[in-house]
Amino acid sequence: MTDLPAPPPPAQALPAPAQLSDRVRLVRNTLPPLILLVVVVVEVLIAQLRGPRAELWAHLLFYGLVGPAVTFFSVEWIAEGTRARERAERELRLLYGELSASHGRLRAVQELMRDLAEAPDLGAVLEVAARGAVRVTGATHATLTVPGGLSGTARGDTLLATPSADLHPLKVPVPGGGALALHFETPPGPDTEALALALAAEVANGVEAARQRTLDLMTLHSVDQSIRAERNMRRLLSRITRNMAARLNVSARAAYLTDQDGVLRLEYAEDERGEAVGGSPAPAFALRVAEAGKPLIAQEDEARGVFPEARSALGLPMLNEDGLLGVLMLGDPREGAFAETRVPLLALMAGQATLAVRNARAYLYSEELAISDERARIAREIHDGVAQSLAFAALKLDVVSRQLRSDPDRAETEVRAAGSLLREQIREVRRSIFALRPIDLERYGLLETVRRYVLDFGEQNNLRATLDFGGLEDSGELHLAPGDEAMVFRLVQESLNNVAKHARAREVSVSLLGGPRVRLRVQDDGVGFDPESVTGRVSSAGGLGLIQMRERIEARGGRYRVQSAPGQGTLVEAEVPQT
C-alpha cells in the first residue's frame, strides 16, 4: 500500500501554566495575613512620625497607592493564569480538530482502497476512484483519465454540473500514465496536494489490478475456447500451453500425459529450438510434480532437465477424480522468472486443461467406436447386399452356360438380367465409395467442402444438383465450432445419399443460409416416403437414421425435421446456432 501523508504535527508544547485554583488558593491563604502584617508594620512606623499632618499623608500614601497596587497585581496574576489556560484549551481544540480531520481522511482513503479492490472492471475502478477523490479531498469535481481514452468523473456537494473558472484546479499525475484533476472552492494547500499524490498512487494500483484481472479473464476465455473448439490432442495442448506462456511472458512449454500403462510421457513441447517429438519419458522434475500433486518451481538444474536453455521452470499437475492425468511445464532462460507468478490462476488453467484433455480423449475414443461401428455396418451391407447380388449373378451365369446350346433365347434373357444386376451393384459400390471418401473440412472449410461434395454427387448419380449459400461466402457470417461444421456436413452427406439410394429423383437442391442460426435445406423431387414408417431405420450411407440425426442436432441446441409423402419428394431442414 502506498504510504499516506503523515498527519500534521501537534502544536508546539507550551510551558505548563500553574493551575488557576492553585493561584486562587495561594492568594486566599497568604494575602490576608500578609496584609495584616504589612498594616501593623506600617502603623508602627507611622506612629513614630511627628505631627498629625505627616501621619495623614503617610496613611493616604499607603492606603491610597500601595493597597490598590497590591490588589491590582494580585488580580492580574490570577488573570494571567486564566488567559494561559484559555490559550491551552484553544490549542487543544485546534489539535483535536486537525486529528479528527486527518482520521476522517484516513478512513476515507481506506474505504477508497476497499472499493477499488472490489470494482469488477476498469471502468468501475475509474468511477470509484473519482468519487473517492472527491470524498477524501473535499473537491467539488474530480476527473480521472488513464491511457486508452478511459476516464471517470465525479461531483461533490455543489450545484455546478462542470468546473467553472472560479474554482481552483489541482492536477497530479497517475503513476503509469494518466492524471487526476481536482477542483476546489479555495486554493488547495501543500497537505491537499500531498494527499492527492497519494490517492493517485493508490488509483494506479487499482487500475493495474483491474488490468491484471482483465488479462486473467481473457486468458481463461482463450483456454476455454481451446477446450471447446479443438479435438486434436497436439493442437489442443499447443493452444493451452501457448496461452499460459503468453500470460507469463515465458518462452518454453511442454505437456506430459499418462499413457494406458500409467507412464508419464511427453505429448507436446516447444521452445526456442522448435517443437519436440513426443513419446519420451518425463524428466525428474515432472515426476516430482506428479508425486507432489501441486504446483512446484524447479531448481536451476531441474529446469535444464526439462528445457536445455531454461534456468527456471514451473510445473503444474493435471488432476481429475481418477488421479493424475498429466503435468504441464513452463520454462524461461531468466533466473527467478516464476518468483512472483500467480499460481492459483495457473492452477485453474491446468484444471481447464485437464478437462480439455479428458474430453479430447473421450472424443478420440468415440471416433474409434464410430469407425468400428461403421466398418461393421459396411461389412453387413456388403454381405447382405452386394455380395449376395453378385453371388446371385454368378448363379445366373452358371445357368446360362448350360442353356447356351439347349435354349439360346432363354440364355440371352438371363445374361441381360445378370448384366443389369451387375451394373446396379456397380453403382451401389460407387455410391458407397463416394460416401466414404475422406473430406478435409479443416483444409477447405465447410462451404467449399459442401460445394465440392454436392457437385460431385450430381455427376456421380446422374442428376441435377443445385447449391445456394445465400451470400455466406462474401459476408463471412458463418461461425460454427469445428464439431458443428462436421455435423452439418455429415447431415448433407446423409441426406444426399438417401436421395441417391431411395428417392429416384431427377433434381436435388441444397441451401445453406446464415443468420443467428445456420439453416440447411436439402430438397428432392423424388418418390418420397412416409416418415413415420421409416423413423427407426438406419441408412446405408452415414450410419445414422432419422432419430440419430435428430438427436445429434438437438444435443447441440439445433432443430431438425423431415417433410415427405409418397409421390411428393422429400425436404430435410435443420438449424444450428452459431457460436
Automatic annotation (TrEMBL):
Enzyme Commission code(s) on record: 2.7.13.3
Keywords: 4Fe-4S, Cytoplasm, Iron, Iron-sulfur, Kinase, Membrane, Metal-binding, Transferase, Transmembrane, Transmembrane helix, Two-component regulatory system
Matches recorded under Pfam families: GAF (PF01590), HATPase_c (PF02518), HisKA_3 (PF07730)
Reactions listed under catalytic activity: ATP + protein L-histidine = ADP + protein N-phospho-L-histidine
UniProt-listed InterPro entries: GAF (IPR003018), GAF-like_dom_sf (IPR029016), HATPase_C_sf (IPR036890), HATPase_dom (IPR003594), His_kinase_dom (IPR005467), Sensor_HK_TwoCompSys (IPR050482), Sig_transdc_His_kin-like_C (IPR004358), Sig_transdc_His_kin_sub3_dim/P (IPR011712)
GO molecular-function terms, A-Z: kinase activity
Keyword RNA-binding: no
Location(s) in or outside the cell: Cytoplasm
Cofactors required: [4Fe-4S] cluster
Entry function: Member of the two-component regulatory system NreB/NreC involved in the control of dissimilatory nitrate/nitrite reduction in response to oxygen. NreB functions as a direct oxygen sensor histidine kinase which is autophosphorylated, in the absence of oxygen, probably at the conserved histidine residue, and transfers its phosphate group probably to a conserved aspartate residue of NreC. NreB/NreC activates the expression of the nitrate (narGHJI) and nitrite (nir) reductase operons, as well as the putative nitrate transporter gene narT.
Name of the protein this chain belongs to: Oxygen sensor histidine kinase NreB
